[in-house]
From TrEMBL:
Pfam families: CRAL_TRIO. It comes from the Eukaryota. The lineage of its organism: Eukaryota, Viridiplantae, Streptophyta, Embryophyta, Tracheophyta. Residues 67-232 form the CRAL-TRIO domain. PANTHER family: CRAL-TRIO DOMAIN-CONTAINING PROTEIN, OS03G0850700 PROTEIN. This is CRAL-TRIO domain-containing protein.
Length: 245
């Protein structure tokens, strides 16, 4: 780590202290994510970090959202956890045709956190480092108008950007129907430039082949050109890991 980088980290830690909080329980890889998300500005990174700590304490008091709090969302069988990509990222697949706009928004938000936490936890070897990333796939095949949920999609991205900075390695959107193009244009206005750059809309054979290579045939389901079966999120049992929050 160069001196300038080290200095920014020190400045961020001092700023967090001035804001009445502490970085003692967190390693540099966690703090660096917030720095990168705020263009290496220590004060802005500190504010974002403290805001995340407060949110986490109030929204996720147990440290995780148990299955029992998001039963309806899990029963829809729309989220699948496939294993680890070639780059070492856990792969989440969302089947949008199994999703319907939530009547219970607080529960949907809990589901988003449950989902992101579990996917990231599945990429932890023994102890959380703090810089683990995930790869996402949104499958829009068989999508009907009744499944379209711009609000839900925006909520997911906003949570990612505000509370999971630099956790997304790449997001592939596959099988996009023509009517979803205008929805995506509207949703993408809520995305930060750094997030938008990680989104790949797979629209031709070359992109599809690259997508298969990036994720890995061994964990990608057959319907996407791989060799695996879909594995529902709730069917994945993770061993206990030492978390940093």
């Amino acid at each position: 780590m160069d001196q300038n980088h080290q200095l920014k980290l020190t400045q961020m830690k001092n700023s967090v202290q001035k804001l009445g909080s502490s970085t003692d329980s967190y390693g540099n890889p966690t703090l660096e994510r917030f720095l990168i998300a705020r263009s290496m500005d220590p004060n802005k990174a500190a504010k974002m970090f403290v805001s995340w700590q407060k949110w986490r304490a109030s929204f996720v008091p147990l440290g995780f959202i148990p299955d029992s709090q998001v039963v309806d969302q899990l029963e829809a069988k729309k989220a699948f956890l496939q294993g680890i990509s070639k780059d070492g990222c856990p792969v989440l697949i969302i089947k949008a045709s199994n999703h319907y706009p939530a009547k219970d928004q607080p529960q949907f938000k809990k589901f988003v956190v449950h989902l992101l936490d579990k996917v990231l936890a599945s990429g932890i070897k023994v102890k959380e480092v703090g810089n683990e990333k995930m790869m996402g796939v949104i499958d829009l095949s068989n999508l009907g108008y009744k499944n379209v949920d711009a609000r839900g999609l925006i909520t997911g991205f906003q949570f990612l950007q505000a509370y999971y900075p630099e956790r997304l390695a790449k997001l592939y959107i596959v099988n996009m129907p023509w009517f979803f193009v205008s929805v995506w244009k509207m949703v993408s206005r809520f995305l930060e430039k750094a997030t938008l750059e990680k989104v790949v809309i797979v629209s031709n054979e070359e992109e599809k082949n690259q997508f298969i290579r990036d994720v890995g045939e061994d964990i990608l389901p057959e319907e996407f050109g791989g060799q695996a079966k879909l594995v529902a999120l709730q069917d994945v049992i993770l061993p206990p890991v030492e978390r940093i929050d």
